[in-house]
Design goal:
Structural class: alpha+beta
Distance between the termini: 71 Å
Number of helices: 17
Shape: globular
Helix content: 25-40%
Bound molecules: 3-[(carboxymethyl)sulfanyl]pyridine-2-carboxylic acid, manganese (II) ion
Amino acid sequence: MALDANSVKHDQLKKWVNEVAEMCQPDAIYWCDGSKEEYDTLMKEMIASGAATPLAKRPNSVLFRSHPSDVARVENRTYISTTKQEDAGPTNNWMAPDELKAAMKKLYKGCMKGRTMYVIPFSMGPVGSPIAKIGIELTDSAYVVCNMHIMTRVGTSVIDVLGADGEYIPCLHTVGSPLEPGQADSTWPCAASIDDKYISHFPEENLIWSYGSGYGGNALLGKKCLALRIASAMAKREGWMAEHMLILRLISPEGKKYHIAAAFPSACGKTNLAMLESTVEGWKVECIGDDIAWMKLGPNGELRAINPEAGFFGVAPGTSYKSNPMAMDSIRENAIFTNCALTDDGNIWWEDGDTKAPAHLVDWKGNDWSPETKEAPAAHPNARFTAPASQCPVICPDWEDPNGVEIDILLFGGRRTTTIPLVTQAVSWEHGVFMGASAGSETTAAAIGLKAGVRRDPFAMIPFCGYNMGDYIQHWFDMGDKLGSKAPKMFYVNWFRKDANGKFIWPGFGDNSRVLKWMCERIEGKVDAVETAIGFLPKVEDLDLSGLKVTDEQMKELLTVDAEAWKAELPEINEFFNKFGDRYPAKLKKEIERLTANLSK
Ligand code: O2Y
Ligand code: MN
């Protein structure tokens, strides 16, 4: 076990590891080899220390409980640090690199005392693939090492690919909780104050520094930090795309394969759509990825996508055999659960799952909980499961193809109870970019501490774009120019329309396959559409509604353009785009002017 540091030929990497060790002063340095033995040993240690609880009902699976202050990504402590503030843009937190590094270096000094520093060599994308990128994460968290084993490809083979001078993205992480000699560790160490947490990105030098949190996107640095924020900036420079998108393959009864990449903001059911069980006879979905797509031009000018991840880090509450049977089957074994509730017989439980709460649970904070006396949910609303993608029963046989799959359809959406129809097709690439750029989702003030209303979230990338959002939207226009006639067709969906009684009109879940089928028939030219002020809408008779209990009235509501509601929204979209100042793409302005004129006809 452990990779022999002497076998590493990359002198610059060894120098960086030593420099970080000098600054952070860990008790030991451990080079990860990515083996099962390594995972099992670290997990055993965490079980012995009380940090992890084994689950009798799920083979090789454990439950972690985080510190109550460390439960989610911290957007207000996430920085894009560029020399010029305008290069980070109006939607990112910014600090000058010198200032940010100076503040963080003070915190990093001695921060790993009493701990082991793990060196994790990982690949985003299949090891050795021309599209993959290598990262090296230094962390003092064994929880992070085990999660990285599942979410990325970790190990000796990555060091082999790196050779003596290969390129890698340095990712430095610490929980920010050094131990004095003899001091007992807590089960979830992290920085005591939110003001001491930093998730920092230096896109000009492809560098990530994270301090103070052990949770999810703050700590598993291959995911949001590397595969989206740093990769989006690299993609802009190099002419490709790093997107917050699921990738799925839809297979028709005739065996024709369609590939869809879809961007939805967090909490809009991306994981559910990625593994959807089709209710349309003969149509089948296979999952390629549930969160991130890297897309490049292929040899024939087509757009090809890979999922750079190797696992799912899904939201547990709300996941059930009704909402996502394939996810449920993916987490039967070999899974890590974080902040779920624990049953007396050694299983996990969460709200809006398959079973009613039993009479007794231990909640995510480690306290006794019962449905009678409950004051708060038993599982944290952002409780997570980590599971290998290979365990998904509908994982696509080509999900690890280093050349990716050819994308036919790009899909955008959000959670909107009014205004936005069930599905709209863009009339052009430029119109599709406008759709993606103006995408928004309704939030409740209580849920995430934001102003209630529509939160604009271009391409679902607001929290994940590593550079100026205006430049990012321009990059979408530029990619359209490169793709020309090979460009995928673009659509916008809204599964979340509600009626006057506040009930969802569209059944959602597996029935969303009916809408995907219509999209495929559109790109095949098999069905006509109605051209409206906002794009092409389906003729109701072209949607496969067989066996579905939706009335004509309801379908009319789902497929009607409410011009007055759209007009009322335009000033707010304009105001949002105006924030881009001199980075406001001219083509985007033209699209909003075109829509404004269309709605006034
Ligand atoms: O709260 C976290 O740290 C996880 S956030 C996350 C995890 C998996 C997939 N997507 C997201 C997201 O916020 O988009
Ligand atoms: Mn996500």
